[in-house]
Amino acid sequence: MTERQKLYEGKAKILYASDDPAVLVSYFKDDATAFNAQKRGQILDKGRMNCAIATHLFQILAAQGIPTHWIETTSDREMRVQTVTIVPLEVVVRNFAAGSLCQQTGIPLGTELAPPLVEFYFKNDDLGDPLLTRDRIRAMDLASDNQVDAIICLTEAINGHLQDFFQRCQITLVDFKLEFGVNGQGELLLADEISPDTCRLWDQTKTDPKERILDKDRFRQDLGQVADAYQEVLQRVLAQVSPN
Predict the structure, then answer these.
(1) What rounded mean pLDDT belongs to the chain?
(2) Rounded to whole angstroms, how far apart are CA atoms 37 and 7?
(3) 3-class DSSP state for residue 72?
(4) Mean pLDDT across the stretch 39-53?
């Protein structure tokens, strides 16, 4: 059996070449990192759970007309995706105050943000993924003004669809991170993944602030039962009617 060509290995996934240059294979790992990879560990079966969650959410969004890089899921840890050139911006949507927003602004945890905040961060670990303004994005030539406008439009639509979906799961979508890429035809696509690794998710059936956490904050804060939280998200996501 021919060994696959590894093109890139990130914190949570490995990208392999396929027999089609326009298609890559994305493999989901169990590795977990936090605080810009200063904290490292593993979450049992995280890759399998995140692959399944991301698959379902990509299908949900595609059914609503959101263009994504997802093509098909071929195993419990792998999906085929379109080859894209990643826009070097992390797009963070905040529906409720949490994490760094509370630390930097003093806004109380859980404060609803209306309208939601859409923030841009430079995708650069060496610089600590700094917060960017539109003027900085322009000065750094990270994306065109038209791309930024298109990203904001897609992001707001994605947020609306995901909020509605997670509400049906009795989960509050607190905030989340998105990445976008441009395919060979010049089309802007949602890329990367959507999972408990990239979202803050709070269980609406729990009142205790620590017990309600269903995402990677359990790993960040050493709360334990991280895999159980991911499994709970997976079960609720899959319990919803398939978009197909």
Answers:
(1) 96
(2) 20
(3) strand
(4) 96
3-state secondary structure of 225: coil
pLDDT by residue (tens digit) across 9-24?
999 999 999 999 999 9
Confidence of residue 2 (pLDDT cuts 50, 70, 90): low
Distance CA 221, CA 3 (A): 38
Residue 197 to residue 193: CA distance in whole angstroms: 9
Q: CA 38, CA 35: separation in Å to the nearest integer?
A: 5
To 10 degrees, the CA torsion angle through 69, 71, 74, 77? 20
Side-chain half-sphere exposure of 131, counting CA atoms within 13 A: 8
- Residue 22 CB neighbour total at 10 angstroms: 12
Structure tokens of 194?
């959507």
User: Could you tell me if 71 and 81 are in contact, meaning their C-beta atoms sit under 8 angstroms apart?
Assistant: yes
Sheet containing 6-9: give its strands across: 6-9, 13-17, 23-28, 78-82, 70-73
